[in-house]
Design goal:
Length: 225
Amino acid sequence: MKKMREILEKVFSLLYSRFGPQHWWPGDGELEIIVGAVLTQNTSWRNVERAIWNLKEAGLLDLDSLHKISVEELAKLIRPSGFYRIKAARLKELIKALVDSGGIERFKRMGIQELRGRLLEIDGIGPETADSIALYAFGKPIFVVDAYTRRIFSRLGIFEGSDLSYQEVQRFFMENLDHDVMKFNEYHALLVRLGKTHCTKRDPDCPGCPLKAICSFFKERSLCD
Ligand code: SF4
């Protein structure tokens, strides 16, 4: 396990040295982060920004307004984020849960497991979205797992196969890293950065990757060349 801790720290330090701080989450305040976490499902951040801008322009980016607006009206405003009808329904459910529970401050005071449990009860809120909200909106020490995490750590040779469950992958990081909110924040953001810039699904840019010296995929590929 000590070895795993060292490897995870090495990955972090190589990524941080190359890319620096990522300043996540790109949102202004808890509610904007919560809304962004739902809207970002299956779309680019650029589209999310356009949808959030629409909400701001309409003067609706507050809990009370989002609670009162109809799901149809909300869907129209968040249309740029794609899957807008589904996302509007999800967002309404989430806003209702926040209001019914006594507001954002009440959620903030919840322990991590209670908070996660409440979020996961909401239709369409899966572990990645719930954990993104818990970490980035409420500052809870939880590691967010996504497709980039799985791909990068499989290629590094740390995960064997890619069929580990969300919980298994998350447990791996939680057991091998200090439970530090800022570290979890930066680590996930750096993995997303690497997944977008180098460790892409097809044709990864291994020669320019900061992790190539410790990557099994790169070593095997080099041997074949
Ligand atoms: S060296 Fe290639 S496969 Fe390995 S992490 Fe970097 S981009 Fe991904």
